[in-house]
Automatic annotation (TrEMBL), chains A, B:
This is S-formylglutathione hydrolase. It comes from Stenotrophomonas terrae. The keyword Hydrolase applies. Belongs to the esterase D family. GO terms for molecular function: carboxylic ester hydrolase activity; S-formylglutathione hydrolase activity. Gene3D superfamilies: alpha/beta hydrolase. The active site is at 145 (charge relay system), 221 (charge relay system), 254 (charge relay system). It catalyses: S-formylglutathione + H2O = formate + glutathione + H(+). Serine hydrolase involved in the detoxification of formaldehyde.
Amino acid sequence: MQRLEHRACFGGWQDVYRHDSKVLGCEMTVGVYLPPQAEHGPCPVLYWLSGLTCTEQNFITKAGAQRYAAEHGIILVAPDTSPRGESVADAEGYDLGKGAGFYLNATREPWARHYRMYDYIVDELPAWVEANVPASGVRAISGHSMGGHGALTIALKNPGRYRSVSAFSPIVAPSQVAWGQKAFAAYLGEDREVWKAYDATELVAHAQEKLPLLIDQGGADEFLQNQLRPELLQAACEAAGHPLELRLQPGYDHSYYFISSFIGGHIAHHAEAMR
Amino acid sequence: MQRLEHRACFGGWQDVYRHDSKVLGCEMTVGVYLPPQAEHGPCPVLYWLSGLTCTEQNFITKAGAQRYAAEHGIILVAPDTSPRGESVADAEGYDLGKGAGFYLNATREPWARHYRMYDYIVDELPAWVEANVPASGVRAISGHSMGGHGALTIALKNPGRYRSVSAFSPIVAPSQVAWGQKAFAAYLGEDREVWKAYDATELVAHAQEKLPLLIDQGGADEFLQNQLRPELLQAACEAAGHPLELRLQPGYDHSYYFISSFIGGHIAHHAEAMR
């Protein structure tokens, strides 16, 4: 592993590492924010999954999350959104291939070899984090858009693994919207039964653990009606008796201006759950 | 004028405008953050001058300043760093020409026609702001690196115009460092007497108003020894009896991670002065 960046920030350090991922078959970059408390002992970790087109840079430069992580003594881990490199398959368009891993394990070619972001986020990345930074093993997960889909599905599929989960503007029902249908068809094939394993709106019906879902959604989000459709998850949660706090924030769009405005509340929520 | 961006942020709006600048002979973009208090009446304005290579985007996306501006009810105005457009002269390198206006009025060709950032920041931009957004006419000024140089020199040259001034990692003595010498020779010619009009370390000796200077400087800043040299301003302030609070922040570099860590304190400082 290699440390690419090391920058003082709010009394701690915003680092970026490159490490070998066996699961993905490539090198991966990951942002790690160490709060000042990490100098004195292990801290809990909030994993942040970014959205389409992002790398680890978007969250670490734009969300303003370090301030709150420093206040609460939380490590922030922000990985890249897909495998990378010349050997990794890609596609035209921003919503498939590099930058668009959708946090699943692909089963179809040419994707199956590298596109295993689900296993990377659930297993390999936490193992790497807990071996290499002062992480306590207490975890929470959050994300934005495609990364909100990742956070919700990963938390729902792994009871006991995360103390809390939240999302900003998540793709809650990928099987029912164009972004998800394009990606799932390519990565998983046409059998829609298979898709259910990566669809939060399907997963809440069978969730073994009633981990409360916290979601903020901008009311002026340009993708709200066609790609995000939080009402589908809301209905599924009501039917399943799954706790959901869905907050519609009038006027806010899909950008990091929205995330930065509410990330403080999410970090406080995760800090409380991880205490 | 044209509004290019309009994004909800911390209860207010992060806007970006394009407007015609007569002084610069081109269109200019400028970021304007309106805090929630601006809905109810005029607010004081903090002008932010960015550094080499920046546009209005760097500060508005990376500094995390909107949170504090919303708390204190301050408008943030972040202009671009130079004239722009096909008719505007440029040069090889990041430290001359576009993105490197140095907040002065150029007198040499090919720069003199468009490179008049001093007049733009001192006169035309505030006039535009006060005519087009709910600004009270109470002003403060801050900036980073080349923009810290701009903030210090403009405040020192215009007594009574700003309630307060601060800077992050400013170029305090451009006449004595490579960045400044290259730019001043090109924009102003070889006569070093002329340079003194745009050099904070020279200007403090004759400042009519003893406006206190607040400066944060990262101790691990890669430009500290060769380009920034705050000790030169410190000595000049001591000789002139000019109030200066120079804070060396160990470990911090020249990036927006540094700015974001301390911008809250600067905004509180300006808010107090503008109250």
